[in-house]
Amino acid sequence: MLLWASTTPLQPKNLLPTTGTLLQTWRQTTPRLLKENDLLLEAPLQALAAHTSNLQLENWLSRGISGVRSLLTQEGIKPFPDMVRDFHIPSRELFTYLRLKNIIQESRIILKESNLISPFVHKCTGKLPKVKALSLCYNTLLTQYTATKPSYMTNWELDLGLHFPVDTWHRAQKLTKQASHSLNQWETYCKLTMRWYLVPNKLAHIYPGANKICWRCHNQEGSLYHIFWKCTQITSLWQDIHTLFCKNLGIGVPPTPECFLLHIFPDNLHEDESYLMIHCLMATKTAIAQKWKSTQAPTLSEILGRLDSFYNYERMASRITERQSRHETRWRRWVDYRYGKM
Ligand SMILES: [Zn+2]
Q1: Cα 233 to ligand 1 centroid, rounded to whole Å
Q2: How far is the CA of 301 from the centre of ligand 1 (A)?
Q3: What is the pLDDT of residues 122-167, one digit of tens each?
Q4: For 37, 183, 262, 302, which has the most beta carbons within 10 A of its beta carbon?
Q5: Angle at the Cα of 15 (from 21 to 322), degrees rounded to 5?
Q6: Does this model's pTM top 0.85?
Q7: Residues within 5 A (CB) of ion ligand 1
Q8: How far apart, in Å, are the Cα atoms of 14 and each of 21, 28, 204, 331?
């Protein structure tokens, strides 16, 4: 059941190193073997038992419902009367059905038209007896693989006129998530990268007739890219942040939107430098978001004050997690700049 655990709340502990490596390899390669279908979609029915306790599935398994996929149609989860009709499930199993339905809904598994059964799944279910499993896996892994890129990534790339591999996006997300103990910072980053903010041109699209001009400069269309980066009222703030990096913190980075907004940093940037930069950038972006619809842009002193709060918060969190030395290393340049050499 551990193989299906990546989509369950199950967090295996005290695994042997070989088991841990096996699980890691499985989770990295299954999207390709399953044609990017949800792992739980192809899981055996018993995998759902990891999500709850005392789930009795004997009556379901004995009637040939072996996989999670059997419970779904493109319209959603099969209604209980259909399950009774198709598999002769006893009507007393309604409660178990409702529990299964709840798990599937919470896991957000859906069966789309494009969710074709991959050759790997066919092999696992015994429908490709002539193809050898190892050959099938090697052929799949050797085929050129392009992960699907979510629309928010392609929209940012259109704005910036640049293209980034999905791995680069994922690296930026991972770095940002690891940079802070604050869920608020992570949420703010997600809101911006996933284009959640209701900027004027988005509101004008939703409500025809609404004003789509930027509320700060009253001149340009208020797109997400404009509000957070291109607006003439905000560019001097980003210049100040760039100066803070280069002159005060000794971090040489180009003042580009991919770096400052999306945290796609140059490859030669040291990890500790990128963590400190992320805090500075998040302080700036949360300040911009907090001055929503205000004609005033945040000032550098507001950002520095916010960073003092971030520093204290992270220092307290590092004491709890007993990672104080790592915290001191990451924030050393900030302490030197803000409080003088200590
Ligand atoms: Zn503007």
Answers
A1: 6
A2: 22
A3: 777 667 667 787 887 787 777 766 667 889 999 999 999 999 988 8
A4: 262
A5: 100
A6: no
A7: 214, 216-217, 231
A8: 13, 21, 53, 33
